[in-house]
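Continuing the series of single-chain predictions for the mutant panel. This is the parent chain; the variants come on the following pages.
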Amino acid sequence: MFIRKNILFFLLLLLAFVKLKLYFQHTDNDGLYFMLMPTNALVSLITGSHAIYSNEAGFQHEQLAIVIEKSCAGFNLFLIFLMVLSYLAIKYFQTAGDKIKHILLATLTAWIITILVNASRIWTSIIVQSVTKKNWPQSQQLIHECIGIFINLSALLMVYFFLDRYLSGKMAEGAKQSDLK
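Parent structure:
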């Protein structure tokens, strides 16, 4: 019943997901500047490193020997957050207007969370790889990917479970108040 009742929302989300994935495949660093710039700003703030931007290379941090570019923009993480938060909006809000309003809010929220998580992932990679570079120089790419998997998955699970619990409590509280009237 839930899926049938909300099929239009799910189809529109699927369409948005496919269109955004296609956008990502065909864009460059300039097309992802809206994600790269705030991520770089946080990384620069945390590390004190200054970056130089170019469309070809992204944000280059010579001091840290890193580049923040398309592949580490966090766009796929953003899409997953967007789908998860949109699902929760569809699940917990009853009217089409409320669902649309909360899906739009989910877009902004997914972007903000992605920027924070991605900057944390990059910062953690910088720290961990500076420690492991001497003993495991051949494993740096694997270490970098494992850090990304751990941080991104942890953030996704925490956000989902926290919001799901919060919204289910809010809805239960609202139902109790309706019963009392």
